[in-house]
Amino acid sequence: MKKAFFAIVAALAVVVSFASCGGGKGDAALAGTYKVESIGDTDVASMESLMGISFDYSLTLNADGTGKMNMMGQSTDLKWDASAKTITAEGDTQPYTVKDGKLIMSLDGEDMVFVKK
Is 89 in contact with 19 (CB distance < 8 Å)? Predict the structure, then answer.
């Protein structure tokens, strides 16, 4: 249980470290707000229910290629490029994929899955 919780926290800490200014090349079809659904094999809703707390994690992608990561009340700027399928922050670029309407980023070998709200 603690291992799964710490895996979630560690993966989210990596994502929250993404911050940058300026815009990328967005895509209106992908633009929107996404909520984290799972990290690796851990379903976030189940974790919330089990722990009795709410994990307020979302990713907002604007059509102009800018965006924000919101985590537990903290907001971080980022930019994303739909053609390259990357999210960039602080000079670090991470690839993402989109499958079945879900945005998926692989961080430290764990897939972080976001669903559009």
Answer: yes
